[in-house]
Structure formats: C-alpha cells, structure tokens
Amino acid sequence: MKAKYCNQCRKVIFLRLKCCSLCHPTHETLHKNLNVIVSCVFFTLLAISAFYIINNNDPDNRQISEQRTKVLPSLSMIKNDRLLKNLITQHNLVKTYIVTGVDDLSFDDRRRVEIWIMADRMNTLTEKLATAALAATEQLEKYNVQFITVMLDQQTEDIDNAISIDYAQDYKDASGNDMGVNFVLHKLPPEYTVN
C-alpha cells in the first residue's frame, strides 16, 4: 500500500487515512459531533420558525380569539337596510332636522357618536325613517366617525318615543364586528312596525 506524510508531524500514514492518528486522534469524533451540532441547530431553528408562523398569523400580533367575528345579517336587517337606503333617495320624504345633542362614544380604534335630532312636520313613519337615515349619513361624514347612532324624536329627547338607527359605511357595528349591512333599524316606538 502506498503511503503519504502527515502535514503536522511528517510521519508516514496510509493514503486511505484522512489524518495522522498521533496528531489528530479525535478528528473523526469531532466530525461526528459537528454533524450532531449542526443538525440540532437546524431543527431548533425550524421549530422556532414553525411556532412563530402558527402563532403570529395576524399582522397586529393579536391572539386568534381576539379577532373580530363576522356575522350574517338576518332577513329583516337586510330588508330594513334596503328600505332606509331607498328612503334617502326620495327627497320629498326627507325633512329638515336639527341636531339637539351629540355624545362621543369612541373607544380604542373605533370612532363613534350618538346624536339626537329633531324635525318638524313629519306625519308618517316613512318620513321619520327617511329623515333619520339621511341624518345618519350626513352626520357620520360631518363628525368623521366610523359608526353613528341617530335618535329621532319629534318633540323631546324621550328615549321611549325615539326612532333609533345605526349606520356605518364599513358594515361594522359599534364594536367593529361585521354586521353585513350599513343601516340597522335599532329601535322603533311600540306603535310602529316595519315590514
């Protein structure tokens, strides 16, 4: 068998050997240990990456349970939403109104207000709904909010006789949850019903 010389001690070693056993007795052991260390580091980084991807899929780093829920609107909510959108376009039904009170109900990242309005010469429920719906759209833009509740009463700020309409351009309720419609006819006095 042919021989070669060790680079460190210049002793004769066989060609098939990688190093001199006197100079580097643990070379094979070090090589095996290095493979184990590299494998451990690789799998640790892989596990950390997988954990990060699974637990941080929300850009705001919120927990999954904190994410907003989507709610499908009921048939009556859809009918009322369409009715109010249609009434706004009928200018002969909308009456002049004045704002009698404003409450800022904003919290966290949801800007919202509740306003009270009064209007004269409203004889029908349709006129009241049209006026309140138009007030909701106009006052939402005026106050630069995401959600508004309009309370309409012809004589006084009496909550039992008021018509209440919620409105949001982004289809989300006061808390920011999806509601599926822009308008929600929230409250009518007991003597009224909407079909």
Largest sheet: 5 strands, mixed
- First and last CA, distance: 103 Å
Q: Could you name the ranges where pLDDT drops below 50 across 5 or more consecutive residues?
A: 60-68
CATH architecture field of the largest domain: Roll
Integer tally of domains: 2
Instruction: Quote the CATH topology of the largest domain.
Output: Diaminopimelate Epimerase, Chain A, domain 1
- Our estimate of the beta-strand percent is 15-25%
Report a brief summary of the structure:
This protein is of the alpha+beta class and 195 residues long.
List keywords for this structure.
alpha+beta, five-stranded mixed β-sheet, rod-shaped, two-stranded antiparallel sheet, 2 domains, Diaminopimelate Epimerase, Chain A, domain 1, 195 residues
Describe it for me?
This protein folds into two domains: 3-55; 75-187, Roll (Diaminopimelate Epimerase, Chain A, domain 1). Helix content is 32%, strand content 19%. Strand 3 and strand 4 form a beta hairpin. The longest helix has 29 residues, at 27-55. Mean pLDDT is 78; it is low at 60-68. Helix 2 (75-89) packs across helix 3. The chain contains three helices and seven strands, in the order E-E-H-H-E-E-H-E-E-E. The strands form two sheets. It has a five-stranded mixed sheet. Strands 1-2 form a two-stranded antiparallel ribbon. By secondary structure, the chain is of the alpha+beta class.
